[in-house]
Amino acid sequence: MQSLRLRLTAYVLGVVLVAFAVFFLYEALVVGRAFEREARRHGEALAAALAEALEGRTPAEAEALLPRLAAAAGVRIALEGAGGRPLAVFGAPSDEGALSFRRPVVLAGPAGAPVTLVVTEAAGRRDDLFSGPWGPGLLGGMVLLGLLSLFVYRVATEVTRPVTQVAEVARLISDEHYGVTVDVRGYGEIAELTAAINAMSRSLALQMKRIRDDEKRFGDILMNMTSGVVLLDARGRVVFVNRAAEGLLHLAHRPTVGRHHVEAFRHFELSELVERVLETKAAARRELQLYFPEERVLDAHLVPLFDDDGRLDALLLVVHDITDIRRLERIRSEFVMNASHELKTPVTSIQGFAETLLDGALESPEAARRFVEIIYNESERLKRLIQDILDLSRIEQRRLPLDFRPVRVKALVDDVLLTVQKEAEKKRIALSADVDPALQIESDYDRLKQIMLNLVVNAIQYTPEDGRAVVRAVDEGATVVLSVEDNGIGIPRRDLDRIFERFYRVDKARSRHSGGTGLGLSIVRHLVELLGGMIWVESTEGVGSTFFVRLPKVRDAEETPPPRDEGGGPRGDDGRRPPAAGGGTLRTDPDG
Ligand SMILES: Nc1ncnc2c1ncn2[C@@H]1O[C@H](COP(=O)(O)OP(=O)(O)OP(=O)(O)O)[C@@H](O)[C@H]1O
Ligand SMILES: [Mg+2]
Q1: Does residue 448 come out as left (phi exceeding 0), alpha (psi in the -120 to 50 range) or beta?
Q2: Pocket of ligand 1, candidates 461, 586, 589: which has the most ligand atoms within 8 Å of its Cβ, to mutate?
Q3: What residues make up the domain containing 241?
Q4: Angstrom distance (rounded) from CA 192 to CA 205
Q5: Where are the annotated segments for Disordered (predicted)?
Q6: CB-ligand 1 contact for 385 (6 Å cutoff)
Q7: Measuring from atom 29 of ligand 1, which residue has the nearest CA?
Q8: What is the pLDDT of residue 167?
Q9: Distance (Å, whole) CA 572 – CA 575
Q10: Residue 79's pLDDT is what?
């Protein structure tokens, strides 16, 4: 029997039945004996009374009397002669277990012979005496037993219900339904059990929630970190790939989890690295070159992970994109190379003319003067070059303090044109400005002047004599577009993209001859970006060029670096200031 409550019911009923049976047997035994004793006494007394009543009667009298007596007493009465010879029998025949009582009686009459009176009491009659009507009793007993069974079953159900519930909750918990509880209704130990189960369930639910939260957090971190992370098992199969790794290793378009690394990565060098770490069980690192879908340099770091027994359990691959770092390194070394080359040119020149002077040119005052002039110009160029390089690196590192104030564009443009006036006159280049005097923007006056000055100087430099240059400012609402247009030599189409690069010059010999370093537009572009704007150029070779600078009218506070800390002199939209705030930054005078 499986159910506890059925078992309990059966046990209780069994015990009750056994108790009843024992009780009845006992009763039957004791009562049976008592009845037998009683029957004997009764029989004895009856026999004695009959014997006395018969004594001295005639056989005829006896025969008349005895049937009535037998019927009245419900017994069998017999008379036996000498030697047990039956003389007369009255009443029902005797049955098994009947009790007989004998008395000698002397009858009157001629014979006067002594006879034996035998009174026999039937056993059946005796049983009737104490058993009474069995039927109703049995029925009553069964009904009682039925009711008792129901009651016991109910009680058993009541007693076992909390246990059943506890079992159900335990099953639910093992099925990962954490947090379910039992209604505590029992008493004593049952109540303690349910309370304990409830506490356990709640604590499990809490712990599972914590574990899940942690799991989710770690998952989110892994998924969203910029480093690529891949987990491989000890046989080199991919177990986990985060988003960055999918992007970096170009894995997103095919299934990788569960695949062997060779199939998953499809990258010879990377698979070689994995095999090496699987074999040596030591961390390894390698730079990977990727060509598809775009050229990339990755730094792959592979670490073996061990279980508690020291067996290799997994491999952790961490991948970083170092394309930009490598590119910057290349640019930097190129820059150093270019810069050294640019610096060497004036130095060589200075050295050469100084040598010539020492070798005797000093004797001729005319030659001496010319050479010293050259030496002076070259050293001036050297100074500018060094200053430019320093400037550029300061701008690039955003260490250049900015001072944003309202600037009247017209005043600024006039300032720039005045600065280069002499220069333009030398080449008979007509300078003009087309700017609304009321136009104002919020910007750094000095940096903006540096930008415009560079562009105007270029326009003069790269425009043949008798040319013209126009500076314009167009209000476009939120922005202002400043432009410098010339009708000079123009820029070949293939060079347009590159003229903002450092040291890039379209015609190196000519540009260098003009004293240029090739850093001007590079500085301009950085400054424009620093001021939150953008720069572009339109040009046709042999026709002319126009440089455009778009700047926000009001500065975006988030984009700009902190204001300069050094105290500035009087400044403003109409304040005429010396060309360079930092000294020599502005190449205002191409002659040096
Ligand atoms: N207005 C222009 N017309 C034609 N070419 C120009 C013009 N402005 C610039 N360029 C070309 O772009 C190149 C880069 O200009 P950039 O101002 O950076 O250097 P640079 O003028 O040679 O030297 P510097 O550093 O002294 O200004 C120039 O060498 C020139 O070839
Ligand atoms: Mg220039």
Answers
A1: alpha
A2: 461
A3: 225-321
A4: 20
A5: 553-592
A6: no
A7: 505
A8: 83
A9: 5
A10: 82
CA-based torsion, 40, 41, 44, 47: positive or negative:
negative
- At residue 2, the pLDDT reads 63
Residue 416 CA to ligand 2 center (angstroms) comes to 15
Taking the CA of 526 as reference, the closest ligand is 1
Verify whether ligand 1 is closer than 6 Å to residue 511 (CB atom): yes
> Which residues of the chain are under the pLDDT cut of 50?
1, 130, 560-592
d(CA 553, CA 408): 11
Smallest-distance ligand from the CA of 517: 1
**CA of residue 528 to ligand 2 center, whole Å:** 15
Asked whether residue 390 is domain-assigned, the answer is no
455 within ligand 1 shell (Cβ under 6 A)? no
Q: Are residues 168 and 206 in the same domain?
A: yes
CATH value at residue 287: 3.30.450.20
Atom number in ligand 1 closest to CA 547: 1
CATH of residue 363's domain is 1.10.287.130
Residue nearest to atom 24 of ligand 1 (CA): 516
Q: Is residue 238 part of a domain?
A: yes
Same domain, 421 and 540: yes
pLDDT of residue 510: 62
The residue contributing the CA closest to ligand 1 atom 31 is: 506
Whether 462 lines ligand 1, by a CB cut-off of 6 Å, is: yes
Q: Are residues 229 and 357 in the same domain?
A: no
Distance, CA 521 to ligand 2 centroid (Å)? Answer: 6
**Alpha carbons 253 and 2: distance in angstroms, whole number:** 56
Q: Is 524 in the pocket of ligand 1 (CB under 6 A)?
A: no
CA–CA gap between residue 252 and residue 365 (Å, rounded): 77
Is 240 exposed, middle or buried (CB count within 10 Å of its CB: 0-12, 13-18, 19+)? middle
pLDDT tens-digit series, residues 194-230: 888 888 888 988 999 999 999 999 999 998 999 999 9
CA distance 478 to 473: 13
Q: Is residue 66 in some structural domain?
A: yes
Residues 417, 311 share a domain: no
In a domain, 585, yes or no: no
The Å distance, Cα 584 to ligand 1 centre, comes to 18
